[in-house]
C-alpha cells in the first residue's frame, strides 16, 4: 500500500492524516518536532522540511505529498519560499501527486465572489508569496515534473484554527468578555472549516489527473458577517450575548507597533473591511465535497477553546 506524506500537523494537516488513516491508508506526518495524530497507520517523523535531501528520503515512494505547513505569519517572505521549493522538489522526485494548501490572498481585492479562474493579482507581500508558491507548482505541473493542485480556503473555524477570529474574538466571547475585531462587522464573509479543507484536499488527491493543474475552493461553512457569526457562537456555547466592536485601523496599527504578528494584519485589511465571498461550486459539483453544517463547526470551535482553557 502506498504511503501518503503530510507536511505539517496543524488543524488541516492533522485532519488530512486522520481522514487517510480512517480509510486504512498509510500516512507519514513530517513536522519539525515530530507532532501529529497518534493513530494506527500514522507515522510521525521529526524533520526540517527545508532539508531537501532529508525530505526526499522521507517522501520516496509516496503516492501523494500534502503541503500543509505554514511558517510564522510574520516571516512568510523569508521562510515560505525555501520550504515550498523543497516540498515541491521532493514530491517531483518521488513521482508523487502534490497538493498545496493555499488561501485566497493571491487574488488581491476583488469585487464579487472569488472564483478559481480569477487572475492572481496580489497587492500585499503575503499575497505575492502565496501567488508565487502556486505559480511555481503550476509551472512544474505544466512542465510534466509533477501533478500539482492547490486547495484554497478562507478564514478558518474549528478546533485550533489559526484565524484572527478564532484566536482573538472566539475566546473572549466564550469567556463572556468584550472583543474587538478589525473588520466591517456586517459585511458577508466566507468562513472555512478546517475539516472541510482537509476533505477537499483528500478528494482532489483521489480524483483523476484532470483534477490537477488547477486550484479548488473549499466550500464555505458560512458567509455570515462577523457580528452574526459571533452571536451564533455564543448561542451554541451558552455564552452571554457577545459584546463585539469594530476595531479601527489606528488601534490595530498601535497594537502592531509592539507585536510583530499583529503588525502584519493591516495590509490584509481589505479582506475584512469589505464583503468576501468564495464560490466553491466547482468542488461541490466535480469532487462531491460539501460544507459541514455551521452549528457543528461552531460547537467544535467552542469545545476546542474549553479544552485549551482547562489545560
From TrEMBL:
Residues 6-208 form the NAD-dependent epimerase/dehydratase domain. InterPro entries: Epimerase_deHydtase, NAD(P)-bd_dom_sf. SUPFAM superfamilies: NAD(P)-binding Rossmann-fold domains (SSF51735). The lineage of its organism: Bacteria, Bacillati, Actinomycetota, Actinomycetes, Kitasatosporales. It comes from the Bacteria. This is NAD-dependent epimerase/dehydratase family protein. Pfam families: Epimerase.
